[in-house]
Recover the amino acids of this structure.
């Protein structure tokens, strides 16, 4: 990502656009029974809804995003809730994931093909990665959507097994 990417996301978040403010993704909350605590990474966290939820249920959370605007809003909400988040402003394509550091990594609606081996290496034995991406059906309603952010059939499985 470049400075222009950071500026674009900062503008978007400053307008209140992007994922719902401070709400965790249903996919995450629907799988609460799998979430046993420990250290979590919310990669491309945006306003931090998933990070806030994970902190609420007992995780120590690192939340990384390129947008300082989104991270400031996430921090203000964490303070309001009396929660602790470790927020990191970084270019996600260059941020280093510590090996065997996390019990859980969540990555929603951000394509990280080149980073998948590093993300998987960042899991402790028995750790989980929750990833939700757009797939080819996205193109039915948004035909000009950037293909860099669309996952093809079997792509996640192949990345996990590589």
């Amino acid at each position: 990502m470049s400075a222009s990417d950071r500026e674009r996301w900062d503008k978007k978040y400053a307008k209140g656009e992007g994922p719902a403010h401070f709400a965790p993704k249903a996919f995450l909350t629907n799988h609460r029974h799998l979430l046993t605590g420990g250290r979590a990474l919310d990669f491309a966290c945006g306003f931090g809804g998933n990070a806030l939820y994970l902190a609420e249920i007992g995780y120590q959370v690192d939340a990384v995003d390129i947008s300082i605007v989104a991270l400031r809003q996430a921090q203000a909400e964490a303070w309001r809730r009396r929660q602790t988040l470790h927020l990191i402003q970084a270019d996600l394509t260059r941020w280093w994931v510590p090996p065997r550091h996390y019990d859980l990594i969540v990555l929603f609606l951000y394509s990280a093909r080149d980073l998948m081996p590093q993300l998987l290496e960042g899991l402790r034995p028995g750790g989980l990665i929750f990833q939700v991406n757009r797939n080819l059906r996205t193109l039915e309603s948004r035909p000009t959507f950037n293909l860099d952010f669309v996952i093809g059939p079997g792509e996640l499985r192949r990345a996990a097994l590589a």
Remarks:
- The longest helix spans residues 68-81.
- Helices lie at 3-14, 26-29, 49-56, 68-81, 116-121, 138-141, 155-161.
- The chain has a mean pLDDT of 89.
- DSSP finds seven helices and seven strands in the chain.
